Backbone:
């Protein structure tokens, strides 16, 4: 079973920041938080991951709370092409297996 | 740069027929390799993973099998397909357990 809880769907206006929340209250000390997204009929695409510090790359920012029980993926300026299902996944270092939940379906609207 | 290939892109097979899906990775050595399945309207489910040639771990019991005859080749097979084998099959690779996985374009299998 997935160790994360995400809202099933969210809407975002084009050009605005999309903030996608994820709860992972049972995360353990050596587990990372990963974010992937899946655009319809394509394979999942890696976005970002982090352990406890906030992370930023060319796609998104990842904000992890100090207690590590939740995180937020931020797409700073959402475009229509960002419409996808976003998966928040907790993965330990000793196992390479991603357990995908149902994710959040993000709809970016003009 | 690394790339991952899967073929075929789509496949329609009758129940009881055999299956062979192939995945190859370019631009890296000794990758971890993974097979996932996504049934219609459902999330991705890990089927098999491999950390080296000839080393296969199965995550769920099923009538599918996997093999890794070469370092960068991962094959998913079945001797007799079931209707429930229909789905979107994805191959992925990673450098190791800690790093991100990169997914291929997938094969959409329909069993009739």
Residues:
């Amino acid at each position: 079973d997935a160790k994360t809880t995400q809202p099933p769907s969210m809407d975002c206006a084009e050009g605005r920041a999309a903030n996608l929340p994820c709860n992972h209250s049972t995360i353990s000390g050596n587990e990372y938080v990963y974010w992937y997204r899946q655009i319809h009929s394509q394979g999942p695409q890696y976005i970002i991951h982090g352990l406890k510090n906030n992370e930023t790359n060319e796609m998104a920012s990842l904000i992890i709370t100090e207690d590590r029980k939740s995180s937020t993926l931020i797409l700073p300026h959402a475009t229509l092409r960002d419409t996808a299902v976003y998966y928040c996944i907790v993965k330990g270092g000793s196992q390479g297996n991603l357990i995908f939940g149902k994710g959040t379906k993000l709809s970016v609207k003009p | 740069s690394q790339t991952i290939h899967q073929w075929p892109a789509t496949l329609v097979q009758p129940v009881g027929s055999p299956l062979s899906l192939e995945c190859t990775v370019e631009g890296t050595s000794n990758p971890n390799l993974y097979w996932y399945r996504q049934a219609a309207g459902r999330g991705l489910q890990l089927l098999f993973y491999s950390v080296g040639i000839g080393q296969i771990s199965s995550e769920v019991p099923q009538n599918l099998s996997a093999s890794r005859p070469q370092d960068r080749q991962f094959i998913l097979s079945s001797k007799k397909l079931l209707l429930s084998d229909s789905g979107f099959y994805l191959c992925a690779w990673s450098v190791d357990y800690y790093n991100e996985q990169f997914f291929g374009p997938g094969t959409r299998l329909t069993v009739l």
User: Anything to note?
Assistant: The interface with chain A takes residues 32, 34, 36, 43-46, 49, 51, 59, 88, 90, 92, 94, 96-98, 100-106, 108 of chain B (CB under 8 Å). The two ends of chain B are 38 Å apart (CA to CA). The mean pLDDT of chain B is 92.
